[in-house]
């Protein structure tokens, strides 16, 4: 294996999506990346014909260049904007209930088991390696209700080198007796989690204020969460307009407003650091409010098919100015793979088109899905100046893709670069991801 410990150079093909409409192929380019200690940033990305000049400018020798093997290419790391860490152990199962019954029968009992630190360590260690192996370099996590296991998750993410935003879940009503906390305990534990996470020696792992959603959070808890997020300049995450049965319960609990958007806004939770999952039943007026507040949506198409019965209209969200990223929503979404999330996003976009009378649709749905998984997620988290594409000055969060690895993709001499890229998106899996970098640091090599 080549050494990537200091400043290094990669030569080969780079594919990224700088804008929603654009897919850019940079064939035979050289990319200079600073050492992790110097920020792991892209210092230069130019055609290989300028290699001698580039190396001289950075005082590098030809021996520092790693030639990406023929047939492979680089793409930005994937950004998962919605993942429930304590649900990972039952991902791939339990898709037979509507949302509220699913939470009551499967989710709350399974999440409650994570008060056992040994169990939490085993499950969280596996999920972090699984996500890195699948090319997820950044993830926005819900932990469980328990402080110490959430702190453990943050520590494991720090050790593994993944870029992560982690939230200790808060709930003070409408849950199982064994899986609920008082308002005061939720707030004190959240503050303790924020402080301990910020005490880690890392610029990659960050705390997130995480009231689960309106049905399990009193107005007082929501308002206090908004105050905490502002006080500590934290991201905040929750679920919004997730399903028809969710909306019905919110209307029952809060007939004075009937919708969770108003409750979140009153609580000061709709900010430019907020990421709200789903949003499938949001009206145009509600989307306009999210846009005005700078609040992003985590689009979780796979779980929407199981629990919402309504696909999110990503095009409408974007037209109204709402930032949208892509999420796997494990375990509501049964797969931790962002490639599967992209495929589901394409199908969801097609479904929206089929339901629309004006036949308006995403012009390039496949490209749009790849953008959502990279730059879209970066924008949702406010990281668009740091990650999501291969622009000079950004931090190097990247994947080396080998479409020929394993037996899952057949390639042919007639395949163009676009053909190869499309095959990876539509047919690829973790076998095709041969190396993973986060902030210029190599975190996985196969």
Automatic annotation (TrEMBL):
Which pathway does it operate in? Answer: Purine metabolism; guanine degradation; xanthine from guanine: step 1/1
- The Amidohydrolase-related domain, residue ranges: 73-443
Task: Name the chemical reaction catalysed here.
Answer: guanine + H2O + H(+) = xanthine + NH4(+)
Names of required cofactors: Zn(2+)
Arranged from A to Z, the UniProt key words for this protein are: Hydrolase, Metal-binding, Zinc
So which domain of life are we looking at?
Eukaryota
Molecular function (GO) terms listed? Answer: guanine deaminase activity; zinc ion binding
Its Gene Ontology biological processes?
Answer: guanine catabolic process
The cofactor remark states: Binds 1 zinc ion per subunit.
Q: Which family does it belong to?
A: Belongs to the metallo-dependent hydrolases superfamily. ATZ/TRZ family.
Q: What is this protein called?
A: Guanine deaminase
Organism field? Coccomyxa subellipsoidea (strain C-169) (Green microalga)
């Amino acid at each position: 294996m080549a050494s990537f410990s200091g400043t290094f150079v990669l030569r080969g093909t780079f594919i990224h999506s700088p804008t929603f409409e654009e897919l850019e192929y940079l064939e035979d380019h050289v990319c200079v990346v600073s050492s992790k200690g110097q920020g792991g940033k892209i210092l230069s990305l130019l055609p290989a014909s300028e290699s001698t000049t580039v190396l001289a400018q950075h005082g590098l020798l030809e021996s520092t260049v790693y030639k990406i093997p023929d047939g492979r290419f680089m793409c930005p790391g994937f950004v998962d904007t919605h993942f429930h860490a304590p649900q990972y152990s039952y991902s791939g199962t339990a898709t037979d209930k509507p949302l509220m019954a699913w939470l009551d029968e499967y989710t709350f009992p399974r999440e409650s088991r994570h008060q056992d630190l040994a169990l939490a360590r085993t499950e969280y260690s596996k999920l972090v390696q699984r996500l890195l192996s699948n090319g997820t370099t950044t993830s926005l996590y819900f932990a469980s209700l328990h402080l110490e296991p959430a702190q453990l998750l943050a520590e494991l993410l720090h050790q593994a080198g993944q870029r992560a935003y982690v939230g200790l879940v808060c709930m003070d009503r409408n849950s199982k007796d064994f899986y609920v906390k008082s308002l005061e305990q939720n707030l004190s534990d959240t503050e303790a989690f924020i402080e301990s996470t910020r005490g880690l020696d890392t610029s990659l792992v960050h705390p997130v204020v995480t009231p689960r959603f309106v049905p399990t959070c009193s107005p007082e808890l929501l308002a206090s969460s908004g105050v905490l997020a502002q006080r500590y300049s934290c991201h905040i995450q929750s679920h919004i307009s997730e399903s028809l049965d969710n909306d019905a319960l919110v209307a029952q609990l809060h007939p004075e407003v009937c919708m969770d958007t108003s409750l979140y806004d009153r609580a000061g939770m709709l900010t430019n650091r907020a990421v709200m999952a789903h949003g499938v039943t949001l009206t145009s007026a509600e989307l306009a409010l999210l846009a005005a507040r700078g609040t992003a949506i985590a689009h979780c198409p796979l779980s929407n098919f199981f629990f919402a019965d309504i696909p999110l209209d990503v095009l409408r969200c974007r037209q109204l100015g709402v930032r949208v990223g892509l999420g796997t929503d494990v375990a509501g979404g049964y797969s931790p793979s962002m490639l599967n999330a992209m495929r589901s996003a394409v199908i969801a976009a097609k479904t929206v088109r089929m339901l629309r009378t004006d036949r308006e649709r995403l012009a390039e749905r496949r490209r749009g899905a790849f953008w959502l998984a990279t730059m879209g997620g970066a924008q949702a988290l406010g990281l668009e100046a740091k990650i999501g594409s291969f622009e000079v000055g950004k931090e190097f969060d990247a994947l080396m893709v080998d479409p020929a690895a394993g037996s899952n993709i057949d390639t042919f001499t007639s395949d163009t670069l676009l053909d190869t890229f499309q095959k990876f998106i539509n047919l690829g899996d973790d076998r095709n991801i041969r190396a993973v970098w986060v902030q210029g640091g190599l975190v996985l090599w196969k």
